[in-house]
Specification:
This protein has about 425 residues and is an all-alpha fold. It has 2 domains: about 1-110, Recoverin, domain 1 (Orthogonal Bundle); about 125-410, Mitochondrial carrier fold (Alpha/alpha barrel), CATH 1.50.40. Helix content is about 65%, strand content about 0%. It has helices spanning about 1-5, 15-35, 45-55, 65-75, 85-90, 100-105, 125-130, 130-150, 150-165, 175-185, 195-200, 200-220, 225-255, 265-275, 285-315, 325-355, 365-375, 385-390, 395-410, and strands at about 45, 80. The chain has a two-stranded antiparallel ribbon with strand order 1-2. Helix 12 (about 200-220) runs antiparallel to helix 13 and helix 15 (about 285-315) packs antiparallel against helix 16 (about 325-355). The longest helix has about 30 residues, at about 225-255. Keywords: Calcium, Membrane, Metal-binding, Mitochondrion, Mitochondrion inner membrane, Repeat, Transmembrane, Transmembrane helix, Transport.
């Protein structure tokens, strides 16, 4: 890394002049980092300042852990680090700075699990200035489209089980697939997928733009938001994006539930709903959908941060880079926990969206529907369709990651 950073004439070696230039350049950077850590401006860094600096970047460590960091650099045993100790330790250790650790661990929504309640991606100043952010979004959208299409049969089965399964009609996974194929052939497994893919682009764009505006409104000067700020900004941005595209959500549910020959296509379905039920039908289930954003995003972020910090404390000896497998595992577990927390609200939302398409179903409120499910089916009834929902998480995450990485290379986005 030192040779790469200092080798100006690209001959694979450092001559004395290049080495001096590298040291001067590196020292400037180290001076800036030292000043940013030295909160008290007394020319020394103590344990509390390390704890505070990391907390500002969203990483929590104890004072004992901060003291361990200090001991590795402290030569004179004062339990503080002066500029000379800091420089001597880091000059020949070209380790990435703390924001670099945050970038490795950026909680990314490109691992598409088909949920709309995720907190948007955060992009650095550099990514925003160079225009890399939109390439990330395009790559993420393409990855989401492929992964949703591959897991669409499981998604449709989930919707059918949420709406039609009950104690008297105990729909299982094999039975559900058999029923779908018998009713409409193999192609029917992908009903509702077209609009599910179509809504990725507007939703991602609105969510990202709203998130950036809310960040400015919060007035933070941090490049990366703290967890509670991220939850607030992400939930609000999610609510704005969902409000904008919610009619597409209702259409997706109705298209997934339609019988063979019921509608000729998406527009026919929309016209049918509008003429028979009016504009209000496009916002059925809106309230439980909005309420689901906070538990999903909150638990997703909290679990991800807990797993991240546990890994950093235990395994981050030589590098803060966790590797692909760890990131995929953390993202999958945190997303799954978020889905578990918000699932009853998602089920109620789907049933409300489907009300008019189920013959003889009475018009009920969110509260009435909760009471009815608990009374007739018990608490288990609020988790109908959970099995196919969880079955699609690992394939969806894996497919979206592989497609995302390939699209990134095609679009010229550098991988860290």
């Amino acid at each position: 890394k030192i040779v790469k950073a200092g080798d100006k004439d690209l001959d694979g070696q450092l001559d004395f002049e290049e080495f001096v230039h590298y040291l001067q350049d590196h020292e400037k950077k180290l001076r800036l980092v030292f000043k940013s850590l030295d909160k008290k401006n007394d020319g020394r860094i103590d344990a509390q300042e390390i704890v505070q600096s990391l907390r500002d970047l969203g990483v929590k460590i104890s004072e004992q852990q901060a003291e361990k960091i200090l001991k590795s650099m402290d030569k004179n045993g004062t339990m503080t680090i002066d500029w000379n100790e800091w420089r001597d330790y880091h000059l020949l250790h070209p380790v990435e700075n703390i924001p670099e650790i945050i970038l490795y661990w950026k909680h990314s929504t490109i691992f598409d699990v088909g949920e709309n309640l995720t907190v948007p991606d955060e992009f650095t100043v550099e990514e925003r200035q160079t225009g890399m952010w939109w390439r990330h979004l395009v790559a993420g959208g393409g990855a989401g489209a492929v992964s949703r299409t591959c897991t669409a049969p499981l998604d449709r089965l989930k919707v059918l089980m949420q709406v039609h399964a009950s104690r008297s009609n105990n729909m299982c996974i094999v039975g559900g697939f058999t029923q779908m194929i018998r009713e409409g052939g193999p192609r029917s497994l992908w009903r509702g997928n077209g609009i599910n893919v179509l809504k990725i682009a507007p939703e991602s764009a609105i969510k990202f733009m709203a998130y950036e505006q809310i960040k400015r409104f919060i007035g933070t000067d941090q490049e990366m938001l703290r967890i509670h700020e991220r939850l607030l900004a992400g939930s609000l941005a999610g609510a704005i994006a969902q409000s904008s595209i919610y009619p597409m959500e209702v259409l997706k549910t109705r298209m997934a539930l339609r019988k063979t020959g019921q509608y000729s296509g998406m527009w026919d379905c929309a016209k049918n709903i509008l003429s028979k039920e009016g504009m209000a039908a496009f916002y059925k289930g809106y309230i439980p959908n909005m309420l689901g954003i906070i538990p999903y995003a909150g638990i997703d972020l909290a679990v991800y941060e807990t797993l991240k910090n546990a890994w950093l404390q235990r395994y981050a000896v030589n590098s803060a880079d966790p590797g692909v497998f760890v990131l995929l595992a953390c993202g999958t577990i945190s997303s799954t926990c978020g889905q578990l927390a918000s699932y009853p609200l998602a089920l109620v939302r789907t049933r409300m969206q489907a009300q008019a398409s189920v013959e003889g179903a009475p018009e009920v409120t969110m509260r009435g529907l909760f009471k009815h499910i608990l009374k007739t089916e018990g608490a288990f009834g609020l988790y109908r369709g959970l099995a196919p929902n969880f079955m699609k998480v690992i394939p969806a995450v894996s497919i979206s990651y592989v497609v995302y990485e390939n699209l990134k290379m095609t679009l010229g986005v550098q991988s860290r």
